[in-house]
Amino acid sequence: MAMTERAPTLQRPPSHDGLGAVRRVGFLLSMLLLGVSCTLAAPLAVAAWYGEADVIGAFATALFLGVAVGSAGLFLLRTELRGLSRRDGFAVVALGWVLVCLLGSLPYVLSGTLGPVNAWFECTSGFSGTGSSVIADVEALPRGIVFWRSFTHWLGGMGFVVLYVALFPLLGVGAMQLYQAEAPGIEVDRLRPRISSTARVLWLMYAGISVVVTIVYLAGGMSLFESLCQMFAVLGTGGFSTRNASIAGFDSAYVDWTTIVFMWICATNFSLHWAVITGRPGKLLRSPEWRFLTAAMVGLGVIVGVLAWTSTDVSPGVGLRQGIFEVVSTASTTGFSGADYELWAPAAQFIIFLLMFMGGCAGSTAGGMKVVRVQLFFKQALQGFFRTLHPHAASPPRLGGRPITSRMMRSVSTFIGLYLFMLVVGSAIMSLFTMDFATATSAVASMLSNIGPGLGEVGPFDNYDWIHPGGKLVLTFLMLAGRLELFTVLIFFSPAFWRR
Question: How far apart are CA 296 and CA 279, in angstroms?
Answer without folding.
Answer: 26
